[in-house]
Amino acid sequence: MLSAMRVGSAQDVDERARQVRRFVDERILPVEPELAAEPRQAARRIAELSAQARAAGLWGSFYPQALGGRIASLRAYLLVAEQEGRSEYGPAIFGDDATLDLHMLSRHAGEEIRQRFLAPLAAGTMVSSYGMSEPDSIGSIPATLSSHAELVDGHWRLSGRKWFICRAERAALVTVIARTAPGPLESGLSMLLVPTDLPGFRVERPLSILGRFSGQGELSFDQVQVPASHVLGEVGQGLALMQERLALGRILRSVHWLGLAQRCFDLMCARIHSARGVQARLADKQLVRQRVFRVYQGIASARALLHDAADKYDAGVANSIEVNIAKVAASQALSEAADSAIQIMGAEGLSELSPLSGIYRTARTTHILDGTDDALVSAVGRQLLDSCDETGLDFDWPSVMAGAGR
Question: What Pfam families does this protein map onto (predicted)?
């Protein structure tokens, strides 16, 4: 039985993707209205579905293999992750919310941290979050971060505020970016692992996104005494770890967005071929065909870009350009797909009679989350210009960039 073994071959991965799709279509999509209801009620339902996913062997597919992960390569996992992302609630139900933290802690945490936190995170009995953005900083400019920590008597005294933090009210552990030394960012920032039961930690308020609460909030740290051993990696390594985290995190988020985009495409095509669509002769209209073409083109292009970025990640090749272009492409693909599906479905697409209004809200947030489109376009544009010489840009990245690291 596939769920009882490690996924290895392409055939195994394909079968796992099919299993995940069936689970999403049969168990998650029918109850999405419940999952969008009152948060505590939704949390109970998500916990039930997560237990079912674990029982089916579909939990934590891309966890580190020592912690139960079934798929070793990021490139292979993308096929499964796209199916997990067909529902807004899929990533939480399949345990994907912990994937990034498990990889970062497995690589960079000390033995004390690993022993205390890895197993509960992998089991889903502990929730983690990541604190970078701040109310008074500019998200795309790390130099403006003001949270700071000072090492005193074996503890970091951490003070500052973070906002728009996912899973803010449920997290037992927050990875916080803070300045730990003056001077250049390359040596002045560190990642601190902060248990949320420490004195001085506080959840200040929940923050809704486009009128809907989705678990984000604002956190404050008032002289929180964090053990000295709770540094991820080395002191002063925060900027490098931020970049490493973003490289994987943007791919993981983007492929889930692609799953939502594919679902919008499916809903749009189903409406075109429905009895009402046939009556309106939708398939015969050029503008309808243009929407189908453009949505399909966007999804296929973003998928190829993500696969390219994942291949380079797996090979240990520098891939920041590929990751950022893929992130923007996936965001654009989802927005185009949601907008076009709503346009084809009409007023019904704007209502609670379809999932499209919720997906549309999600689509708009993707242009902000994990780096705004404007900031990424500007950064990649500069990288491309800096990489060009008089003969142009060499696109043979695997050989050119090998050994440069991520």
Answer: Acyl-CoA_dh_1, Acyl-CoA_dh_M, Acyl-CoA_dh_N
